[in-house]
Amino acid sequence: MSSDDGRPRLAVVGAGPAGLAAALAAAGQGVRVMVIDSAEAPGGQFYRQPAAGLGARRPQALHHQWRTWRRLREGLDRHIAAGLVTHRPDHHVWCVEQRPEGPLSSLGSRRFTVHALRGPAQEDPVEVRADAVLLATGGYEKVLPFPGWTLPGVVTAGGAQAMLKGGLVVSGRTAVVAGTGPLLLPVATGLAAAGVTVAALVESADPKALVRRAGALAGRADKLAEGAGYAVELLRRRVRTLVRHTVVEAHGTDRLEAVTVAELDAGGRVRPGSERRIRCDTLAVGHGMLPHTDLAEALGCRVEPDGTRVWVDDEQRTDVPGAWAAGEITGIGGAALSLAEGHIAGRSAGARLQGREPVPDEWAAAAKSRGELREFLGVLDTVYVPPAHWVDQVTDDTVVCRCEEVTAGAVRVAVAELGAGDVRTVKLLTRAGMGWCQGRMCGPAVAGIAGCAEAVSRRPFARPVPLGVLARAGETAGKPGKPRENEDADDIP
Amino acid sequence: MVGAACALYAARAGLSVVVMDRGPVAGGTTGAGEGNLLVSDKEPGPELELALLSNHLWVDLAAEPGLGAAIEYEPKGGVVVASAPEGLAALERFAAEQRTAGVEAVAVAAHQLPDLEPYLTPGLAGGVHYPQDAQVMPTLAAAHLVRASGARLLTGRTVSEVLRTPDGAVRGVRTDRGDIHTPAVVNAAGTWGGELAALAGVTLPVLPRRGFVLVTEPLPPLVRHKVYAADYVADVASDSAALQTSPVVEGTAAGPVLIGASRERVGFDRSFSLPVVRALAAGATRLFPFLERVRAMRTYVGFRPYMPDHLPAIGPDPRVPGLFHACGHEGAGIGLATGTGQLIAQVLGGRTPDLDLAPFRPDRFDGAGANEFSRETP
Known about the structure:
B: alpha+beta; FAD/NAD(P)-binding domain; 3 domains; 31% helix; globular
């Protein structure tokens, strides 16, 4: 179904809030857009939808901003019907390749190739060629280890939320929600609303510190109201909230039976004697979010040295010409910020792909929202940080890297006795971070235990790719018209 | 790795040793290597002699209590295959020359290849089996050799100056965290050895030659030896700056299969290159068709310390008394580390080295060679 009508093509990677907002904005400018996403349905993590077969009657009960989602979804459907946007679900992108030659708007050269895998085993290659790419790859949850964290029954906070949103499955009867960050609130209320007894919400930060920064927060009364709404909900559900507390151990033989929580002092150390045990069969734990920067990094985009964000300018352009980025990968900020960034990125890409200088006045509202939210989130980031001395609680026999079963003790030996001084050398000496997840889960934990700085992990393959696919990747590049098995390059309508 | 081996043998010779690195242990090319201890890819000559010496020393080290397992030493042997009869004839001539130099090289007929490597592609012309080839996990090897040496390890410390006496002899090094006084400095800075030599006022033409390695998901032992195609030897010895890839496939103790080897001279460019790893994958799947569906988990890049004549610089620098070089081993630094360390320890102690060091003279590029080098600098 290859058709080249002369319109420039934009490939958007990710169909969450940022990707969808970008796709709609770019299509609104007359650019053809291919939205490539790993999930079955659009929406990303935030607007995750229950599988149709489950027959959920009121999925909005689990979502706020349902109206925003409806608007995005209707816009997407409209552009798809008009043939301007194509949505490709279940496409797992492993690499975005750039061919160096050719100016951005020179049609026919299709400077970028998005390499993806699809099918139940993620083995079938798909290549999409485009004149520009917009990376909206989102984020994933950061979890720090503690004794017992690998027991069945311990799940990530985001995982618990995903189960609620996607499968409407309730994992246990008595839950503790723990860690730090704004995500814990909706997780606790969501679990409670689904009929789970939430025995405690354990937050290591002290949200009262937010009040001291009220000036910066005043501009986003909506976000404060959102937080207040959760607080009311927690009260109504009789969820006990323990601030400046942390889970120091999860107990159980075959699966989780209880957790020990303890109070933190002002310096972030566990206050001796403050430990108490709470019975539960589920522990949802999270310590914030990290961005999926792999594709951007391999493409050559500048990533901050600590790996927390892809650098972008006011138009959401990366420093690689023809590559835009929006949403969590330019700094964790949640759905509202992702929508604003996606809109700006889509507007900018749409204009520039057609050789027009974009007019920032056209997105003034989104830019204002972006500015306020970034300021707001900057404050949240200073408040919601893991306890300064979380590493003290990690015993030597605690497994840190689950893929390779590397313990905290092995990491400490690598540093103290074998001369490791950075995450990479710890990895090479211990295999921590060499397994299936390539250190996405254990990276921050290993860095913390090793006492060295978190660094950008280079993962040229954003996901594992069969060697047979790799061996033939892009082999038709520059040879138009040559058909190829499993190939549907150039089929943006 | 070379520095670690120098430290080990120097310490065992009774010297007091300080190991210094601006990064962590194995932070340069060592950590990006496959850990090959090879005799199979070397033609008769000084490098092969060094490889055979090193090979014996690795065997001895691996026999020390606990050390062999700690460094994942595997005397797995190498298998070099040829796809066509002409290639096989050339390979067998090469092997015959190697045998006269003391290499064990066993001709393998096409129908015998499956006995050595059951999953090799059918239809190959034949090959040669090299039982002396072995492998270690290079980062572990470097770290454990430093530890076994008992040397003082100073990581994260950058040498900013080589201190000299009025008559030009080495008297120590200046670092970003203080001076270290010593009458002897060994330059084991690998690909960055030229920079360290420059701090001592001498030129040493070490150039980076970039290589990518592909790492697969962990597998049961399906690839038993280090297996490569006969054209690898030609690529290793080549002077071309252009990209060359020849398939090199081997299993590891930990399970993943490592796939090399690419060579290109592009300076210290660390950026990912899909065309290079695509060529590696294509070569590996041609040798082992089962790899088609095996997943590549990651790829990493390293810079081999390359010298214009493909030989390392080993031994005292006649231009600066007290300065010794042990760098420029290109892609063979892990394998050649033990022999290099032993030779350096011998000359440090004033003893006669086991091998003639003349071919490895650090000043051999002075004069015409230096001009040639400067043209090649990227």
